[in-house]
């Protein structure tokens, strides 16, 4: 992932000042541009000298051949005249006056100079690349210039009812419907590990099995009650309930099916990607910081041969964007075949380094999740990629509108863009219980920044004297399932349970009611469903204490001040 080197070369029509300005707007080091220009200038001089030395070597061989053909004496003198030692000024006439033995000596000196020049050129090339890969793409003029995304992301538009409501957050709801096993997930997979599982139906006959208050809660906050443990593993009968069918798992699969169908209708080709990528290929699609902060490394045998003791590094993908970006690596894409649109389906793996303490509960930010991705290869001409950019974010908007999830679209500030993105729009869904917008979709136009290092070229083949062009590459989330489930839980909660969005009902198991199993019964109704006349009668302390016990500890409820005690 790099910019075109000619953009740094004034004699090639480039403008280093423009790139320096873009770096400053990204709040990144503009000195990298100067370092690159210096290394590139020295590299070009070194390359020019190496080319001349190779020509001189060929000239030496040619002159020796001519002298041997004329049967001139080879000679024994290997001493070189002082004026000949300056290889840069050596000409054919100078060589003609030398003996074959002297020319052979000159050729050895040329070989040594070429080797020295190549060593220096490789060193300069590495220095140049170190700077080049850390210089971001040129920013689109519409990107807000700021290093504070919390304050300065620009809201482009809002859809739906985005008002705060006194409801439960997804962190609580995913436990209240018993569709999430976090404790055992952490034991099995480590931090942020989880199981999506069945949803239990809790009926009147099951109340004695619940860990809820049995007695009177005093206004002084003292409990006068008994606690009866709840067997979380079985229903009272010891058999699975009729609806004990892993509905949250089916809800996730419904989202996947609906997202794929939506994209297929719009001409996207569904593609299921590899989960592993070779190190050398991942280096071409991911920036350096991702290897430390995001990607998981896997080390395995280099081949399937039993006597092969070599090992190979691979990386788990953080998004299907990565393998799809490399799908047409080293290819020429014909103009008539563009745009090429893929609907990527994959499990994604992310370390989430730097997210310590953020979203540690629930399933919003996890190390492993399913995601449907939009990925497009576009023509670099006639603003086609920017038209596609708007089309892709519109497709994502239509998807969430059809699910009935309120959202707003934000233009991400320059300081928060990754190196590849020229511009990024995020779709942030409204979470009424949390009272916040949370990111569900990121849509980026990377122009030719990714394609250049992957060598995905535009056209049939290179035309004589024409500069090679590269396709533009765009990506946009369609549906990260766990995050979308969180949004559904908060936006579709009722006093009796969680409704299934209308568009997803056809993908749910046969015979399922149009509603997920109801929430487990609480000592008091959900605060968002209380009348004003009831609200003053609910004491925060009483409500929180009534929810204590093993079940509360498992659910990790958060007690916040919602109502005033009478």
From TrEMBL:
The protein's annotated pathway: Aminoacyl-tRNA biosynthesis; selenocysteinyl-tRNA(Sec) biosynthesis; L-seryl-tRNA(Sec) from L-serine and tRNA(Sec): step 1/1
InterPro entries (alphabetical): aa-tRNA-synt_IIb, aa-tRNA-synth_II, aa-tRNA-synth_II/BPL/LPL, Ser-tRNA-ligase_type_1, Ser-tRNA-synth_1_N, SerRS_1_N_sf, SerRS_core, tRNA-bd_arm
Keyword Ligase applies: yes
Single GO BP term: negative regulation of angiogenesis
Entry-linked Pfam families: Seryl_tRNA_N, tRNA-synt_2b
Domain spans labelled Aminoacyl-transfer RNA synthetases class-II family profile: 251-501
PANTHER family found in the cross-reference section: SERYL-TRNA SYNTHETASE (PTHR11778)
EC number: 6.1.1.11
Protein name (Swiss-Prot/TrEMBL): serine--tRNA ligase
Molecular function per GO: ATP binding; enzyme binding; molecular adaptor activity; protein homodimerization activity; RNA polymerase II cis-regulatory region sequence-specific DNA binding; selenocysteine-tRNA ligase activity; serine-tRNA ligase activity
Entry superkingdom: Eukaryota
Similarity field: Belongs to the class-II aminoacyl-tRNA synthetase family. Type-1 seryl-tRNA synthetase subfamily.
Transmembrane parts of this sequence: none
Name of the top EC class for this enzyme: ligase
